[in-house]
Amino acid sequence: MAKKSKKLQQAYEKFDRNNVYSAKEALELLKEISYVNFDESVEVSYNLNIDVKKNDQQIRGAMVMPKGTGKDQTVLVFAQGDKAEEAREAGADYVGDDDLVEKINGGWFEFDVVVATPDMMGKIGRLGRVLGPKGLMPNPKTGTVTMDVKQAVSDIKAGQIEYRADKGSNIHVPLGRVSFSVEDLEENLKAINEVILNARPAAAKGRYIRNMAVSTTMGPGIKVDPLSIA
Fold first, then answer.
1. For the whole model, what pTM was predicted?
2. Which residues, 6+ apart, have CB-to-CB distance to 106 below 8 Å?
3. N or C: which end of the chain has fewer CB within 10 A?
4. β-strands 41-48, 209-216: how paired?
5. Which helix (DSSP H) or strand (DSSP E) does residue 115 occupy?
6. d(CA 193, CA 18)
7. Helix 149-157, helix 81-90: angle, nearest 10
8. Distance between CA 136 and CA 76 in Å, rounded?
């Protein structure tokens, strides 16, 4: 651990923690100071001037990153009949109904995203206590409760991400990996930033984006000027 701490300290020494950088400068710095021997995830974090306790100021949704995320998502689909077949054709990793409910109740969680047709939600509701805390419960707002399972699975496999403001009014979104080019990371950042700006609640007053930073899995956060994202 001491060796890692030393490397992290060296990473901090390569930039001014009090400075606010342009998006491009921050992403270039992230790649430069990455010190681990694996392909780290890159994330953007927002702190917003919203009150998530109020229903009209909650922000949640999903979008497909234009350059993907660099992560293969394992997709489980609850569906029957033709919809189950559509899910399989679209590349879903697991498709079923009662059999999957039983497996999950037994402690099986070898999947990243759950999609369901609306008619299956009655059965899946019984899994709320185990899927909910893991953030895996299907939700219409993120496009994971839908009759168009083919499109949902295709979008997830293409790099769809979910975003949601937490209790502290923060949103954390994956942008890709350190191995991505700065240009690709920047394109993903522009895409999610536009979505966040468009999701601004009408009731939100004053400065909407309080703080914004990008970081890697093991690295420090680097402050970003939201106005630098054109």
1. 0.81
2. none
3. N
4. antiparallel
5. strand 113-116
6. 22
7. 20
8. 10
